[in-house]
Amino acid sequence: MKIGIDKLGFYVPHLYVDMNKLAVARNIEPAKFTIGIGQEKMALAPITQDPVTLAANAALGILDETDKEKIDFVIFATETGIDHSKSAAVYVHHLVGLNPHARCIEVKHACYGATAAIQMAKGHVALNPESKVLVLGSDIARYGLNTSGEATQGAGAVAMVISADPKVIALEAQSTYLTDDIMDFWRPNYSDKAFVDGKFSNEQYILFFSKMWEQYKEKTGLDLNDFEALCFHLPYTKMGMKALKTVLDEGTEATQQRLAANYKISAEYNKNVGNIYTGSLYLSLLSLLEQKEDLQAGSRIGLFSYGSGAVGEFFTGILQAGFQDHLYVEEHKGLFTSRTEVSVPEYEEIFQETLPTDGSNIEFNIDKDPAAICLVGMTDNMRNYVNKLR
Questions:
Q1: Is the peptide bond before 310 cis (omega within 30 degrees of 0)?
Q2: In the structure, what pLDDT confidence band is assigned to residue 10 with cuts at 50, 70 and 90?
Q3: Catalytic status, residue 363
Q4: Domains and CATH numbers, the chain
Q5: DSSP E strand stretches across the chain
Q6: Which of 6, 230, 289, 349 gives 302 a disulfide partner, CB atoms 3.0 to 4.6 angstroms apart?
């Protein structure tokens, strides 16, 4: 039985910051942002959007009534969760109107969480072939104003339906994975901003990829020439290319050219959104599928997932016949073209807007937020959401 991604969508907030202008405001040469790390725009979440609403809007864009009835498991992967107790999946389950007879949980391990969710979903579908699982990867990356990590912030969510006989990509059974207890990136419970040892994290990312790639080749007998493309977790778009370059010489000249060209396509969405942590790898996959028009069914795609702290996995999928007919290219194109640029001072003001932490109530005006699902405020320490379509 084939199991994999049946549907794949994403949502990005309607605001963004131009990285050239952010660089100028920080007295940094713009090329360090646009070329050095490969970022052009940074998605910015207003106060009316949080990880729950981003995920719910992503799911709303791909689910039909049949999906809503058959989904009996929702797995929400995030490292910017909103509650230490209640799963963010429960909010999404309600906001998009899913079958009440469902499990809903939240999982965490830095940027690896959505991959863990997919593997868990595969096991559920293997035992329950008629079921579907909704996997969500949703995050808002915050390092702080005028920090070394500011240029690698972002916001957005990816939603995936995992099922038997998937229409987009069937995930192969063999994968390799690795864990090591390191401190390259972390966010203590008391902080709303992350801490990172950037140089160390980059080194570990490449080391993890190298170790898992060698293990994968030994385990499967496959090599670089067997792949149409490799997609990477992208905290910034040059990161994945650094890892890819370490193995490119293993392929033929044609393979090297193909993988390099396809990598560039796979990074296009990410460079215009920024880092979305758990959803980053799958935004890269989506960028490849929706923008490379001559991708063929039967092609093998490699996927490298890395979560600081650290856990990594390398796994693969085979594109299914007619997969192009089950993408949401125009809808996603509309998300990008309808966004509004904000100035650096406006960005700084929005960035510093936070929810009350003292138990006080607050209400937001959501008229300027075009999203169907928004955060409308807090009452008695509870977040209040609305689906405008109801």
A1: yes
A2: very high
A3: no
A4: 3-168+327-387 (3.40.47.10), 170-322 (3.40.47.10)
A5: 3-11, 15-18, 41-44, 71-77, 103-107, 132-141, 154-164, 169-171, 176-179, 185-186, 195-196, 229-232, 300-307, 311-319, 340-341, 362-363, 373-379, 382-387
A6: 230
At residue 74, what is the residue type?
A: V
How many Å apart are CA 42 and CA 184, to the nearest integer? 23
Per-residue exposure over 6-40, b if at least 16 CB sit within 10 Å of its own CB, e if not: bbbbbbbbbbbbbbebbbeeeeeebeebbeebbbb
The tokens for 53 are: 């609403």
Task: Note the Cα 32 to chain centre separation in Å.
Answer: 24
What is the C-alpha to C-alpha distance for residues 177 and 312, in angstroms, rounded to an integer?
Answer: 5
- In angstroms, the CA 339 to CA 329 distance is 16
Containing 53, the helix (H) or strand (E) segment is: helix 51-60
Share of residues in the chain with pLDDT > 70 (%): 100
Amino acid at 234: L
Residue pair 121/282 in contact by the 8 Å Cβ criterion: no
Q: Give pTM, 2 decimals.
A: 0.98
What is the number of other CB atoms lying within 10 angstroms of the CB of residue 300?
16
Q: Which of 79, 150, 228, 313 is catalytic?
A: 79
Annotation says 111 is catalytic: yes
- Please answer whether residues 149 and 37 qualify as being in contact, where contact means their C-beta atoms are separated by less than 8 angstroms: no
Residue 44: name the closest of 283, 271, 274 by CA: 274
CA dihedral 325, 328, 330, 332 (to 10 degrees): -160
> What's the CA gap between 126 and 72, in Å, rounded?
14
Residue 79: active-site member: yes
Active-site option among 14, 93, 109, 233: 233
14, 93, 106, 111: the catalytic one is 111
Neighbours of 318 (CB within 10 A): 18
Amino acid 268: pLDDT: 98
